[in-house]
Every structure is written in C-alpha cells, then in structure tokens.
Design a protein that fits this description.
single chain, globular, 7 strands, two-stranded antiparallel sheet, about 270 residues, alpha/beta, 10 helices, five-stranded parallel sheet
Length: about 270
Amino acid sequence: MANQRMISDLCEKANILRRHVISVAFAQGSHLGGSLSAADLMAAIYFYYLRLDEEESLKDHFLLSKGHAVHILHACMVEKGKVDATELPQTGMSGSRLGGHPMLSTPGAEWGTGSLGHALSVGVGIAIGETINQTNSKTVVMLGDGEIQEGSVWEAALSAPRFGLNKLIAIIDFNKFQAGGDIASIMPIAPLVKKWKAFQWNVHEIDGHDMSAIVDALDSAPAKKGPTAIIAHTVKGKGVPGVEGTSRAHFTKLTKAETEAALTNLEV
C-alpha cells in the first residue's frame, strides 16, 4: 500500500514524464495529447505497481495498446535509465531506435502496437500462458477510449472472464478525444462502465489524474475472480495550457511560448 509520501513522489514523477513528452512536441509534430493524459497512470504503473525490471525473478507484463502514445512509454524508459533523454526529440526519425509507435527493438516495448485494437487480445494470450504456467505475473493493457470502438477489443473482453484471467487488468485512458475529434460526436462509447460490467469484468471508475485513486484501483487488482477494468477519466494534453482538453492536443507541435508555459506549469 502506498503512503502519502509515495503518492507525492508519484505525482512528481508524472510531471517529470510530462516534461519529457513536451520536449518531443517542441521538436516535432507528435501525439502529445494521449501521452500526457496517461502520464499519471503510467507513473503509477511503472514506478509503483508492476515488476518490470530485468533483474526481478518474477516479471509482470505491460502492453501499450494505444501505441500512438509511445512518447509516455519512452519517457518512462528515460526515468528507468534505459533510454537517454537526448534521444527523445529524434523519435520516429531515420536512425532512431525510438519509433512513432512501440517497436520490439525499443526498451520497454513487449509488443509492437502500431495498429489499434489488438493488444488486449495479446494480453489475454499472455495471461492465459501465465495461468497455465501457474505464475503470479500480472498483465496490464492500456487502451485508448477511441480505440475501444474496435470490435477486436470486445472479443478479447468477452474471452477474458471465460478463461478466469483475474491477473489481467485493462486500463482505459478516457480522455474523450480521438484523432478526428471528440468521441461523443464520432462514435459514442457510453455507457462505458455498464459495458465492461456486462462483459463480467470487475470495474473501477476513477479520476485518472488523482494519484491516490489510481493507486487504490491498482491495489484492488488482481480481484479474487475475473479480470479488472479501470476506467480513468483524463484530460487530453494534460499540463499544456491552452492545448489541454482540445482536439488539437491529439497530434501537434508546440510553439516556443507554449512549451515554456507548459514547462513552467509542470515545474517540480
């Protein structure tokens, strides 16, 4: 269980991750919004909840299904000491080992997730394997809210309870926007909580920027029976004044003034 000092440290870590992401958005056009909306969640996943270090005898699994938010994964790798911060502005460029989506050659990427809608199925397969091997490994899959318009997500959601995968956790970054605009106008996904419950998942609905709520939800999993879904309400582009909460945040390049304002806002 996390104490208040740990919660504070995780909040600070989340802001550090955001600053790394902003360095990319200043250098080039990037998927800023979905990376920043997931920063608090990723801080808790990587620096509190999962066992992902190579030296650990028992390893957990993490799949970034919303692969366009790769910048927040790279930021975690910087803080883990596996990627140098100077590499970030070259993301996706020729000669860089950091792709515009997770690549297997990149530290921390367990699965390449360029196309949306597939990683929950992969996560189901990994969780089944760990169950057969009778390990205690957890599998966490982070999905985007626009992504779950894909039918393959719901096929995976249907199968997970059937196989009793209580160590499978799906986290939905519910920031209300996708590439073409706001989700409610393009393809509504409500009622999201009721949908996951109807598929026999244990569901927690939280504020995805409230670190205490995030940690509590993570600590609730694995459940005694069945997989767990954490629906995290977030803000697209969280931390960048004038950009957060807008459709522009999905993919953009920040001006010098916007970058300076964001970094000041995120001073740690």
